[in-house]
Amino acid sequence: MNLDKYRREHADIIGHVQQLKALCTQGIAEEAASIAREVIAMSSVIKLHLSVEDRYLYPAMQQASPALAAKARHYQEEMQDISAQYAQFSRQWNDAQRIAEQPELFRADANRVLKLLFDRIGRENRDFYPMVEAA
């Protein structure tokens, strides 16, 4: 299975995370409008990526070896929690005024949720995708 599209989407998501970090360093309250736009843009990429994984990747892995099928189920179940946390984050922080009014709360929430997302992408790229390609 060719996973190039998934890897490109991961790179795009990481790019958004890096852009958010850069904006935060410039000042959360001062860059609140740009931060809100970046959260919205990243959310679109994440929603599409998760939808394609759920529709194509994970079902295809259920036809693979029992070990790979189990790993795919684990990744899919784990992603449900991360996805829910990200969805809450994006609903709360897609508004520039809210970000400007609560910059430190935004920072704490972003650090927590984006670290979960970043770590998960790393594990997929490093551990799961090579298993899929080897199957």
Describe the structure.
By secondary structure, this protein is an all-alpha fold. Helix content is 87%, strand content 0%. It has five helices and no strands. The protein has helices spanning 4-26, 32-61, 66-92, 96-101, 103-134. Helix 3 runs antiparallel to helix 5 (103-134). The radius of gyration is 16 Å and the shape is elongated. The mean pLDDT is 95.
**Largest beta-sheet characterization:** none
Shape: elongated
Number-wise, the strands total 0
Which spans of ≥5 residues are poorly predicted at pLDDT below 50? none
Please identify the structural class as seen in this structure: mainly alpha
Order of helices and strands: HHHHH
Kindly report the average pLDDT value: 95
Helix percent reads over 70%
Terminal CA distance reads: 8 Å
Question: Which SSEs are present, and which pair or pack?
Answer:
Blueprint: H1 4-26, H2 32-61, H3 66-92, H4 96-101, H5 103-134
Q: What would the keywords be for this entry?
A:
single chain; 135 residues; mainly alpha; 5 helices
Summarize the structure.
This protein is an all-alpha fold and 135 residues long.
